[in-house]
Specification:
The protein is 44% helix and 17% strand. With 304 residues, it is an alpha/beta fold. The protein has 3 domains: 106 residues, Rossmann fold; 101 residues, NadA-like (Rossmann fold, 3-Layer(aba) Sandwich); 80 residues, NadA-like (Rossmann fold, 3-Layer(aba) Sandwich), CATH 3.40.50.10800. Strands 2-1-3-4-13 form a 5-stranded mixed sheet, sandwiched between helices. A 4-stranded parallel sheet has the order 6-5-7-8. The protein is globular. Bound molecules: 1,3-dihydroxyacetonephosphate (13P) and iron/sulfur cluster.
Length: 304
């Protein structure tokens, strides 16, 4: 059954000239039919260079908005209209404009998990894989890092010569993991390495053998000589890894690491979106695209 739907999706995608991008957190059967899978940074770069006229993003809304900002001439579809990221919606443009008045000489660094509207008042975007590299390259010593205070705290530790101001925001899924869970997982699996996403709280990150983006974690586990890992990000990453490395062992850091927004899109949603019966088209006005694009272009320039 799954195979039949996948074949039909592949046929339709070719017929309709659609590029399917899937974030690594989506289900395995979706990643199998995608043109590209990866972390937020890799997807945003792929989207920019994709030759197709239509892009279908299987992920969350801010990722589809990023594609639209980079390719305004393309039709950009999001696989499920309700797929948002709670972190991206935590801070709005009006709030950050007020905060900026208090910190006029700060460079505003926005995690890519922000709305297109918010990006219009920020200076540069970062993703979890590029944040440290980009912040190091910013000339200004004063950085206002939004919205994830956990990723921001990790960057602050890696780039101690910068004065990084954080606000209270973050991913409710990653931030729910506790230090007790990290300690007990390590005790239960003493031979395993702990690989953690920097959206986790500092008390968890400090126990990690490796800290990185979703792709960073996957690459590390695939290349490492170690045979056993505890995966400190969305459960699907451990599942994808188990497919590609059947001879290694992967454990979940916490059963709480499920992002409902990433899981809301099913293979049938992808099929229906290709048939024009589901999904949501991303529509942004020209002014939002032009202003938001400045900070995404800056991310690609500094992070590339
Ligand atoms: P990546 O940048 O690692 O893909 O992370 C995106 C995300 O939403 C993590 O929760
Ligand atoms: Fe947003 Fe967290 Fe889900 Fe990533 S895991 S999409 S940051 S809610």
């Amino acid at each position: 059954m799954i195979k039949n739907i996948q074949e039909e999706i592949l046929r339709l995608k070719k017929e309709k000239d659609v590029c399917i991008l899937a974030h690594s957190y989506v289900a395995h059967e979706i990643s199998e039919i995608a043109d590209f899978t990866g972390d937020s940074y890799a997807l945003s770069v792929k989207a920019k260079n994709a030759p197709q006229k239509t892009v279908l993003m299987v992920g969350v809304r801010f990722m589809a908005e990023t594609v639209k900002i980079l390719s305004p001439e393309k039709t950009v579809l999001l696989s499920h209209p309700e797929a948002g990221c709670p972190m991206a919606e935590q801070m709005d443009k009006a709030y950050i404009e007020t905060v900026k008045q208090q910190y006029p000489d700060y460079t505003v660094v926005a995690y890519i998990n922000t709305t297109a509207a918010l990006k219009t008042v920020c200076d540069v975007c970062v993703t979890s894989s590029s944040a440290v590299k980009i912040v190091k390259q910013i000339e200004n010593k004063n950085i206002l890092f939004i919205p994830d205070c956990n990723l921001g705290a990790y960057v602050r530790e890696q780039v101690p010569n910068k004065n990084i101001k954080l606000l209270q925001g973050g991913c409710p899924i990653h931030a729910s993991v506790t230090e007790e869970e990290a300690v007990s997982a390590k005790k239960k699996h003493p031979d395993a390495q702990l690989l953690v996403h920097p959206e986790c709280v500092a008390a968890v990150v400090k126990h990690a053998d490796y800290v990185g983006s979703t792709s960073g974690i996957m690459d590390y586990a695939m290349q490492s000589d170690c045979r056993e890992f505890i995966i400190g990000t969305e459960l699907s990453i451990a599942e994808h890894l188990q497919y590609v490395c059947p001879d290694k062992k992967f454990h979940y850091l916490s059963q709480k690491l499920i992002c409902p927004n990433m899981k809301i899109s099913t293979l049938m949603d992808v099929y229906h979106a290709l048939c024009g019966e589901a999904g949501a088209e991303i529509v942004l006005d020209a002014d939002t695209i032009a202003k938001a694009r400045r900070c995404i272009d800056e991310m690609i320039r500094l992070g590339g």
